[in-house]
UniProtKB/TrEMBL annotation, chain A:
TM helices/strands, residue ranges: 7-30, 69-88, 100-119
Name the UniProt record assigns to this protein: Vacuolar protein sorting 55
InterPro entries in UniProt: Vps55/LEPROT
The keyword Oxidoreductase belongs to this UniProt entry's keyword annotation: no
UniProtKB/TrEMBL annotation, chain B:
Keyword Transmembrane in annotation: yes
GO cellular component terms listed in the entry, alphabetical order: membrane
InterPro entries reported in the protein's UniProt record: UPF0220
A Pfam family the protein falls into: UPF0220
Protein name: Uncharacterized protein
Family under the similarity heading: Belongs to the UPF0220 family.
Intracellular or extracellular location(s): Membrane
Membrane-spanning intervals of the chain: 96-120, 140-157, 178-204, 216-235
Region (Disordered): 25-58
Keywords: Membrane, Transmembrane, Transmembrane helix
Length: 128, 248
């Protein structure tokens, strides 16, 4: 239990650092467009979470069209989250440093979400 | 493997050999990702070959005919078989993720060109010199064609195209192939249109590289959309082959 608590605290710190980087990348240059990155990365695990319950069976690999759709949309959203600041920096709407900061922050946020869900599912499997 | 089990179990040592055989058969499914599958299946027919206890010739005949020999596989075409890259269970997942990433990359590449064109400004110190060309609706047409083709290809039922007998009628197969043709024609038309726009609008007019980039982004959008469709198709239609390997 202590290890789980430590994991949660660590993950929350990483999440806070990620949001700090994103907000800093917005606030330092008075340009709040990189905040879209945070929204994108927060929305990224949503399709997988929604569509994973539509699959009938884990052993059935063929009829999992909704799961595939969820993964497709997740992948699109993740790539969009990385590509959006690059494009904004390319057309000189935002500063290149803000682009790097927002990408790193978004990656931390998304990694936190992934690690959190993975840790919890593992604990559930261990518990049962 | 099925007729080993139904072979007459008159003598017990023959039974033990059958068990060894199943163990060898299961193994290549697990470490599929390490290399070509043929090397692992090569070992399977050889291991039970020293078989003095098999007295009846019918056993021998059936055993040698059942599994392709190591140096003669009737399904083989090339002299050196292709290294079969398959990630096993996760191949479909990885393929779908890769297809989604390519799809997003394609569209963001073109949107990059569009945003860049919208924010293009005159060079420093020359305020009266406007950028000579912008991304207009003509540049969007090939991308729209490719997206429509992508939609058509994705919505087709993969089993219909393969034309398996047993479900549906033959007209359904014919219609599915027609729709597949329309989808691929739309995608190819998008690719051709993007190349046309690149050549006619940007290269022939002799714009500098900064503006020719719009045309190249258009072409790469079409190419990446086509790659994404192919990857998605392969990932989604490869499941049956895996099942076949499992039930072999």
């Amino acid at each position: 239990m202590a290890a789980g608590l430590r994991t949660v605290i660590l993950l929350s710190f990483v999440l806070a650092v990620g949001f700090l980087l994103i907000i800093l990348s917005c606030a330092l240059w008075q340009n709040w467009l990189p905040l879209l990155v945070a929204l994108t990365f927060v929305l990224a695990p949503l399709p997988n979470a929604l569509f994973s319950h539509c699959g009938s069976d884990d052993l059935n690999y063929e009829g999992s069209g909704p799961i595939d759709l969820g993964r497709f949309i997740t992948s699109i959203i993740v790539v969009s989250g990385v590509a959006l600041p690059i494009i904004l920096a390319h057309s000189e709407v935002i500063n290149p440093k803000a682009c790097v900061m927002s990408i790193v922050g978004g990656g931390l946020v998304y990694g936190t979400i992934l690690a959190y869900s993975a840790a919890f599912s593992q604990e559930d499997a261990e518990y049962e | 493997m099925s007729f080993f089990n139904c072979s007459p179990s008159s003598s017990s040592p023959l039974r033990i050999q059958v068990q060894v055989e199943t163990e060898v058969q299961v193994e290549p499914d697990q470490n599929n990702s390490h290399g070509p599958r043929t090397t692992s299946t090569v070992s399977s027919p050889h291991s039970p070959l020293p078989q003095p206890p098999l007295a009846t010739p019918s056993h021998l005949y059936s055993r040698t005919m059942s599994i392709p020999r190591s140096n003669y596989d009737p399904r083989r075409v090339c002299l050196n078989p292709f290294p079969e890259i398959s990630l096993g269970k996760h191949r479909r997942t990885a393929g779908v993720y890769l297809a989604g990433a390519l799809f997003a990359l394609a569209n963001w590449t073109f949107l990059d060109a569009a945003v860049l064109s919208a924010h293009a400004h005159s060079p420093w110190g020359q305020p009266d010199q406007d950028p000579p060309v912008h991304v207009s609706f003509v540049d969007w047409i090939p991308g729209i064609c490719s997206l429509l083709g992508y939609l058509v290809i994705t919505l087709i039922d993969k089993d219909r195209v393969r034309g398996d007998e047993g479900f549906g009628d033959s007209r359904a197969v014919w219609r599915a192939r027609l729709f597949l043709f329309i989808g691929f024609a739309l995608m190819a038309g998008g690719l051709a249109g993007s190349v046309t726009v690149l050549i006619l609008k940007y290269i022939l007019n002799g714009f500098p590289d900064q503006f020719t980039y719009y045309g190249y982004a258009n072409v790469s959008q079409s190419v990446a959309l086509m790659l994404s469709a192919i990857v998605l198709w392969i990932a989604q239609s490869g499941g049956s082959e895996y099942e076949y390997n499992l039930t072999l």
